[in-house]
Amino acid sequence: METILTGIRVNGELTLGNLLGALLPMSRLAEQYKATHKINVFVPDLHTIIADVDGDLRANTLKSLRYYAAAGLDLAHENIAIYRQSYVPAHSELCWILDCVATMGEMNRMTQFKEKSGAGDGTNVGIFNYPVLMAADILLYSAKYVPVGEDQFQHLELTRNLAERFNNRFGEVFTLPAATAEQAAFMQGLAAEGKKADGIRIRDLQNPEKKMSKSSRAENSKIMMSDTPEAAAAKIMSATTDSVNKVQFDMFNQPGISNLLQILALVTGDTLESVASRFAGETRYGEFKRKVADAVEQFMYEFQAKAAEVSDEDILAALVRGEKLANEIANAKLLEVQKAVALR
Ligand code: TYM
Fold first, then answer.
1. Of all atoms in ligand 1, which is nearest to the CA of residue 133?
2. What's the pLDDT at 119?
3. Quick one: 294 and 249 in the same domain?
């Protein structure tokens, strides 16, 4: 069985970008593939502590898993494993071994590190090393598909490079995850048609050149999953557009409008093509934004209501089961690695 795997840090409330870029596609894929694939959804709590945590890490963990359940992830299904990274020590162990395969040159090229290391010499080493831990998260389970937003694609390429280098040096131990264009197509349900796709990047509502980010200071630039549905709709209404006066998908020339089309497609579960064709010929941005705002409001309303219904007991029971299974798989792979390196 092939494995589909993903994780989301829990530094605080999630953004609509986290949800539409990773959590929702993963939950939809899990529903589609749970009979034939292994589905791993884990909370990268060790990745979380590279930065400040708003609120309590354990409470944030439960909340993020509640969101997956609200998005349709079947916590009780036998092929679906949910677990916390720190409960599976093999992740940290493999990270160290891969550290001895990774080079300073390739790590220095990671754009996320460059963006996050603003504090210069005061930056913690975890921020630098975090893509290697991410590679370990993926390779321990031989995951083929890793649904993540486009900002994480460089880390997926690094994972492939580290796995290949390790295999060349020590023997065929790791399965490489699919290349990023194939990942993106798989995530967006286009793989069966043999299509390639771009990754998903939900943009900042005020400055659509940038990705929507929790750390942005402008409140109107981001929708947080704790926003009221009305507040979320108001933020869509105030989103930056352009003066082209055409509703069409053209990320290069019309990033604001394209972002809204992308959001509309993801919240309604429709394809981008079909959503864009519905607005062909529309020149009134106000009308268009109203439709997107209504859809987002409805989505937030339903999503938050579903999340409130998920019980902590169900999540904790699934974690106990998932962590037992994850330790078995991860420890078996780690032993293979240790033998290959002659540590065992
Ligand atoms: P993190 O926690 O920063 O982000 C979680 C997920 O949300 C996606 N995302 C977005 N997607 C589209 N548009 C946006 N504006 C946007 N903002 C965030 C991210 O791409 C990501 O998929 N290193 C990872 C967590 C991780 C992981 C892993 C993921 C650790 N190990 C193994 C997959 C597999 C991270 O920091 O993502």
1. 31
2. 67
3. yes
- pLDDT tens-digit profile of 56-73? 999 999 999 999 999 999
- Ligand 1 neighbour 47 (Cβ under 6 A): yes
For the chain, where are the alpha helices, taking DSSP H only?
Answer: 16-18, 24-33, 45-48, 57-70, 90-99, 104-108, 111-116, 125-139, 153-170, 180-187, 229-237, 255-268, 272-278, 285-309, 312-340
Look up 235 and say whether it is catalytic: no
Active-site annotation holds for 116:
yes
pLDDT in tens, 125-145: 999 999 999 999 999 999 999
Look at ligand 1, atom 14, and give the residue with the nearest C-alpha: 17
Dist. CA 152 → ligand 1 center (Å): 6
**pTM (2 d.p.):** 0.96
Query: Which amino acid is present at 224?
Result: M
> For residue 169, is it within any domain?
yes
- Domain enclosing residue 160, as ranges: 2-199+311-340
Residues 6+ apart with CB under 8 A from 88: 42, 140, 323, 326, 327, 330
Is residue 193 over pLDDT 80?
Answer: no
Q: What's the domain count of the chain?
A: 2
Ligand 1 center–CA 158 separation, angstroms: 15
- At 195 the pLDDT is 75
Our mutation pick for probing the ligand 1 site, out of 16, 18, 133, 200, counting the most ligand atoms within 8 A of Cβ, is 18
Arithmetic mean of pLDDT, 44-63: 97
| Catalytic (active site) residue 214 | yes
